[in-house]
Amino acid sequence: METSTDIFKKISFFSDPNLKAELLQHGKTLSLNKGDVVVRDGQYVKFLPIVLSGAIRVYQQKEDREISLYHVKAEETCTMSLAAAYFNNKSTSHGVATEPTEVLVFPADLVMQWQLKYPAWNTYMMHMFRKRYDDLINAFEDIVFEHIDTRVLEYLKKKSREAGSPSVNLSHQELASELGTTRVVISRILKDYEKQNMVRLYRGRIDIL
Q1: What does pTM read for this prediction?
Q2: Which of 66, 80, 110, 196 has its CA 20 to 30 A from that of 47?
Q3: Which CATH number fits domain 4-145: 3.40.50.720, 2.60.40.10, 2.60.120.10, 1.10.1200.10?
């Protein structure tokens, strides 16, 4: 079991000791399994998570289609949830853990209080909003200006670089959800790349050649 000292070390990116003390006082740690839902579209946000390890995928869903907006990683929080909590609005997106994830959660009504008390919290919020703005702009540019075939290959290359391996553990459906298209489209594109000896396909895994 983690001690408060262990958690204190994990939130060392906050420079203000008083803010860290409040995070420990009001927050609690949760361990999430892959697939656990953190927030749903249409839900009022009553608490906010700060990811200590692992990752949360934030996405929107319309009928049978999904598209990823961004991934919340260590030392980050969900900006969509942050905005919903700040203005007491319903969430406009879903959040789900993509791997075993540890989060520090705290009541959402503290967001505005901390904004008035701690410059370090304001800096953190602005950094998060700017990062998510850049993420969303990049995603928008990819959708508008890049053909889906190119987006598939570039996404696989990116995941390969992040993993440090030519193998990407991803199903066709997961890839379709990340890129906002259908499994049928993804399967067709990957089959074409396989015929060109650019990838090799396995169940739940794609090797980049």
Answers
A1: 0.77
A2: 66
A3: 2.60.120.10
